[in-house]
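for the recovery benchmark. tokens below, seq after
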């Protein structure tokens, strides 16, 4: 190699260094307690604290107690189970997760919540591996989980929960909410051949077995719905005549009774009365 070639080689090396992608920065979790995960960049985006108080979730006391106890065990490093919250829409599944997390995070600063999109289930194994070596303890929440993409997503989730040869991360608790107990889309069988549908159904139903704790949320009856209305109205200082009648009329217009419908009525009432509610 001649000495004249050295400057050329140095320029080539510099160009290659500029073209090579920079190594991803180590994630920082000191900027918040709740985060959203971006699988494309691998970044964790801080989110504001969840404002809903845990005691405002009415009619789900049994579910609340069971979930909080499991989360408390996880926060202190005791054995616990991944959680599937399933049931009808608007009954407080995701609200319970985030409200309970805020209570426990106030007691345990190392506790963090990372929310992932249900369309990014295939990225969960890489996410769990990235969190495995961290000192923090992570609740990973996937809201409204189902396997619209079939068995590939189910296999990815099973791989994340089982952890391969290394085992599941000890510092990760996976929580999923779903309207269906077995996480399968309603048109699952209609869109596949009979054999493929049977095989994929077996694959997807087996994922439910990886959740050690199943917590069901049944439809809300009328007394519980009205109890939720009165809890909200008292908490926010909303006084109006015929509160029950108006709340029932609201639910009839919506065609449903649930905690979500109750809170939407309260928001409408607060706007009418000129009262500001928590964000």
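predicted aa per position
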């Amino acid at each position: 190699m001649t000495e004249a070639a050295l400057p050329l080689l140095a320029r080539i090396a510099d160009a290659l260094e500029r073209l090579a992608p920079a190594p991803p920065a180590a994630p920082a979790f000191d900027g918040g307690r709740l985060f959203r995960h971006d699988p494309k960049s691998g970044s964790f985006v801080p989110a504001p604290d969840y404002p809903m108080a845990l005691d405002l979730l009415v009619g789900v006391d049994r579910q609340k107690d069971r979930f909080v106890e499991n989360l408390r065990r996880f926060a202190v490093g005791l054995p616990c189970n991944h959680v599937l919250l399933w049931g009808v829409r608007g009954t407080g599944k995701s609200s319970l997760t985030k409200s309970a997390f805020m209570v426990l995070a106030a007691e345990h600063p190392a506790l963090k919540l990372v929310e992932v999109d249900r369309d990014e289930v295939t990225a969960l194994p890489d996410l769990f591996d990235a969190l495995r070596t961290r000192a923090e303890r992570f609740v990973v929440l996937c809201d409204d989980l189902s396997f619209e993409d079939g068995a590939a997503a189910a296999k990815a989730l099973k791989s994340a929960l089982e952890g391969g040869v290394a085992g599941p991360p000890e510092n990760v608790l996976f929580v999923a909410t779903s309207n269906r107990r077995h996480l399968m889309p309603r048109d699952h069988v209609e869109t596949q051949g009979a054999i493929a549908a049977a095989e994929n159904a077996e694959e997807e139903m087996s994922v439910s077995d990886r959740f050690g704790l199943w917590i069901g949320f049944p439809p809300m009856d009328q007394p519980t719905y009205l109890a939720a209305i009165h809890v909200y109205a008292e908490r926010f200082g909303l006084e109006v005549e015929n509160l029950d009648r108006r709340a029932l009329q609201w639910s009839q217009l919506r065609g449903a009774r649930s905690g979500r419908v109750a809170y939407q009525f309260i928001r409408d009432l607060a706007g009418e009365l000129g009262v500001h509610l928590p964000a």
